[in-house]
Design a protein that fits this description.
Layout (H helix, E strand, L loop, with lengths): L23 E3 L5 E9 L9 E5 L7 E5 L3 E5 L4 E4 L8 E2 L1
Parallel strand pairs: 1-6
Antiparallel strand pairs: 1-2, 2-3, 3-4, 4-7, 5-6
Length: about 90
């Protein structure tokens, strides 16, 4: 059995994260985390490497979702599934 919040195999996702604004984000348990507010840039100025996800509540903090935490992006359903649980994602303003 694999420990919680770990990944056995890692794959890269060949999707432009700039096109995911407004997508619903669910964690590994299938619980709704929120919607993508905007892409976040860090290592390269022209390529986002994380997403800012905001919950539905007005004063809720945002969560940073690194690109390597994404398991699947469904463009037709406008949904992003994560391979980690919500507690593993850092919160910010």
């Amino acid at each position: 059995m694999q420990p919680r919040d770990t990944v056995a195999a890692v794959s890269t996702i060949d999707v432009d994260l700039r096109t995911t604004v407004g997508f619903r984000v669910t964690d590994a348990a299938g619980r709704l985390l929120g919607r993508v507010e905007c892409p976040m840039y860090g290592t390269r100025p022209d390529e986002p490497d994380a997403l800012s996800v905001r919950a539905r509540r007005f004063f809720a903090s945002r969560r940073m979702v690194p690109a390597d935490a994404i398991s699947e992006i469904d463009g037709a359903a406008r949904r992003i599934d994560l391979r980690v649980h919500r507690d593993a994602l850092p919160r910010f303003l």
